[in-house]
Each structure stands twice: as structure tokens, then as C-alpha cells.
Amino acid sequence: MRELGVNDELLSPSEKDSLDRYGYLNLGPILTTEQVEQIRLRIQELMTIEGDEAGSELMESPHIKHPKEAGADRLADLVNKGPEFDVFYTHPRVLAAISYVLGNDLKLSSLNYRAAKPGHGEQNLHVDWKEAVDKYDYRVCNSIWLLDDFHEENGATRVVPGTHLSGLLPDDVMENPTDRHPDEVLIEGKAGEVVIFNSHTWHGGTKNLTSSPRRAIHSYFCRRDMPQQIDQKRYIQPETRARIGPAGLHILDI
Ligand SMILES: O=C(O)CCC(=O)C(=O)O
Questions:
Q1: From the alpha carbon of 216, which atom of ligand 1 is closest?
Q2: CB 195, CB 216: distance < 8 Å
Q3: Which of 116, 112, 99, 195 is nearest to 154 (CA)?
Q4: Ligand 1 centre from 199 Cα, in Å?
Q5: Do the beta carbons of residue 157 and residue 186 sit within 8 Å?
Q6: Which of 14, 30, 58, 201 is most buried as measured by Cβ atoms within 10 A of its Cβ?
Q7: Pocket of ligand 1, candidates 142, 157, 160, 219: which has the most ligand atoms within 8 Å of its Cβ, to mutate?
Q8: Is residue 62 pLDDT above 80, yes or no?
Q9: What's the pLDDT at 53?
């Protein structure tokens, strides 16, 4: 982590406070407009190349909740799909925020694309772990990289602030976790921004009411002693291995 320039000073006290108190944090702009454009183009290219196979790596994983969603396009294993994706698991401020939640012993779990299709994308409120955990015993932490502006019309992610402290799952208290929660808020932001959310904070996609897809990349991390959604050792390609160096390989746990 030190080699990647990660240190505790990269987050301000109020950013740390947001993660502690609310369980999520918008880090602000991380990708430039040019990067966003380049990544959108590469995603478009991959969707065409992969066709019906897009996201298939997730189907093989026993550790994923939403492997296939009719209302969302998915791509998986972006680690091995181009150098433009290296930043998603090596960016120092993102790693500083993830390690603030999980501790320094972390690794990438998976790097995937999700786009809520027009008229679709709503999900149950959920956490990204199979059971509730005690507060401060967090296993998983996500970052959502906005490739489009997120707003109330286009399927922005909803979160229920503070629920990472509750030791409960949405199903424990809600009759129907698809319903709106009285305390939920929408994560709104601009393309290029990155939102960190403690994956034990209740969250979910909302319906995209516009005519364009709502695109994002999820760079998802777990504690080093937990299973990865994508077994990075199994999927690593020689060119990725050669390119990312020992620090990148460490984050992938390779
Ligand atoms: O893309 C989003 O808005 C949230 C997706 C999500 O929480 C999930 O797929 O588990």
C-alpha cells in the first residue's frame, strides 16, 4: 500500500467521519473527462466483443448476489480487459478510503461494470455480504465509479445512512426490501466521481427512468482473509501481470 502512495493523511477528518457515521462517502472527481470518455469507449467495445457472454465470469462465481440481472448490462473481470482499468484498484485515495473501512489487509474482490438499462435497474435494499456483521467487523467495501452523472431520474444508487452500524439486514426489518425506506438517500454525483460505500450499509440500484443507460464501474474490495468474488489468480493474464507490478499484484492477492 505504501508503494502505491496510500496513507492515512489522504482522507480528511470529515471524510473519515462520513464513513464512520453514514457508511458512505463521495470522494469527488477522480477520473478526468478524457479518462471517462476513454473508459466509456472501451466498455462499448467490450460489450460488442463479448455479446451474450458479457459478465459470464460472474456466473461462475459462488460469491455473488446478482450474477445476472435482466435490467442491467454487466461486464466482469475488467482487471484483464485493458490498462485503462488499472486505476480502479490502485488509486491512492480510493485505497485509503477502503482501508479506512477494512484495515490495510485488503484485496480486490472484483472489478465489474453495471449499467441500469432504461426502464430498469431497481434492486432490493441489500448488503454485499451473506449475513449481518457486528459494527467495525467489516468484511467488504465497495467503490462505485460514475461513468454518467447520477441523478434521481436515471437509477442512482440508494443507501440508508448509518445501517452499517445496525448489525441487521434489510430483510430483518422490512417486509419488502424493494420498497422505499423512509431514511434512504440517493447517491447523486457527476461522471468521474467515485463514491465509497461500506458494503454492509444497506443499498441498491433504483429504476432508470430515462432513455439512456446509467453506467458505472464497481471496484469491490474484501478483507484479505475473505473469498474474492472473482478468483484473481485464476483469471490473471500474462500482460496484466507484466504491466501492474508487485504492488498491483499484491492488491489482487497474486
Ligand atoms: O449499480 C448500483 O447502483 C448498485 C448495484 C448494487 O448494489 C449491486 O449490484 O449489488
A1: 1
A2: no
A3: 116
A4: 10
A5: yes
A6: 201
A7: 157
A8: no
A9: 92
